[in-house]
């Protein structure tokens, strides 16, 4: 009987071994870099595969005894990538999608992923404004040092149904604080190394309960092979994969290419908790909009991550944020209100976010943000854990976008109501972010870019019907 591809890592039924059958697992050291992440994944996969193979041997089933995950039947109807190494899938992003070059942006060498000239103008203008002392580069550099050392461990992963699909919610603990930071992951192939790592004495049921995989591990292995090929600059994936020989449409090639997108550049949002904006729909800030918009954009692409950090009130907590709100109602802006309460304008660091992305195997990304400080901190200076932010995607409030753009999707009356509600409150907030915190926002409605989200290099693959 030919073996078939299982695309659901958790769908394979594995009979839990009796205690005697259980193979002792060597603990996998916590990965410290992307390379280590994949090495750890492979080690985990091989150990579990070995374990699974022992189990199936003992149960007389040989269907999982090889890595032959591509069957003849599954190959015949698939479109074939044009060349051996699929260069069209890795084609550089079109020039018109990148408006701000490193040369244009002295404080920021991350281009903007949008097609508007206005955007690069506004960025240059913003960069001439001096950020507040609380946000200057010294703080960023100190934070980067700390960030490189942060360890994040995924405790559990669960599937959450979402309109039009599902995502996986991951709960993380870090050694920085005792909060439950989250990763909202779209895409079945983005996996946590620390979640998958075997834990002493656990059964398959234990693994299932915490959301780690127990079967069908071929994908993890293949994923790792493809990733290693990329890491060593060897794009000849075909020589690294077990079953790619013909020039006929081949799911193995398609699959290998899709694996590469793990180290390509998915959309990522690093989002800070905001109870008021997200849960009770406050329009004092744009946080609720930004979270919803990030989810919409990432779901549209089919894969990507929102790292949801428990940094309420830019790190000062809800209690202090509400005091700051009262000061704002007395006429102070968000920066001054924080300073009057003896807090920095922004108390956040991004070590946890970097550690979580590393754990998820993401080293290259497109970042949804307007915040230069966030980009600088995330990038980091430590070469071994450097994040490659290929561009940033502006998070422009919908009500600032040109008529006929995204705003046109709202009904006219809703649009007017939104405008009326937010103009006085949220616009004041956004204006302060731009003027005093160096956020890359332009107030002129006519300058707001109509945002074009560049497709991930491999997204063509996902849009093909397989
Ligand atoms: N201290 C304080 N925090 C606020 C206020 N309004 C919103 N926040 C918090 O600010 C955080 C969001 O940060 P923002 O500065 O809006 O945006 P950002 O994440 O830095 O930048 P983007 O990536 O462009 O969204 C959330 O944790 C909110 O709870 C406020 O008036 N005072």
TrEMBL record:
Q: What class of enzyme is it?
A: hydrolase
Q: What is its EC number?
A: 3.5.4.25
- Identify the stretch(es) annotated as Disordered: 1-34, 53-83, 111-152
Q: Which UniProt keywords apply?
A: GTP-binding, Hydrolase, Nucleotide-binding, Riboflavin biosynthesis
Among the GO molecular function terms of this UniProt record, one is: GTP binding
Q: Which part of the chain is the GTP cyclohydrolase II domain? A: 253-383
Which catalysed reactions does the entry list for this protein? GTP + 4 H2O = 2,5-diamino-6-hydroxy-4-(5-phosphoribosylamino)-pyrimidine + formate + 2 phosphate + 3 H(+)
Task: List, as start-end ranges, the regions of compositional bias called Low complexity.
Answer: 56-73
Pathway field of the UniProt record reads: Cofactor biosynthesis; riboflavin biosynthesis
Sequence intervals crossing the membrane: none
Its GO biological process terms? Answer: riboflavin biosynthetic process
Which residue ranges have biased composition labelled Polar residues?
A: 1-10, 112-131
Family the entry assigns: Belongs to the GTP cyclohydrolase II family.
Name-wise, this protein is GTP cyclohydrolase II
Q: Which organism is it from?
A: Coemansia brasiliensis
Which gene carries the instructions for this protein?
A: RIB1
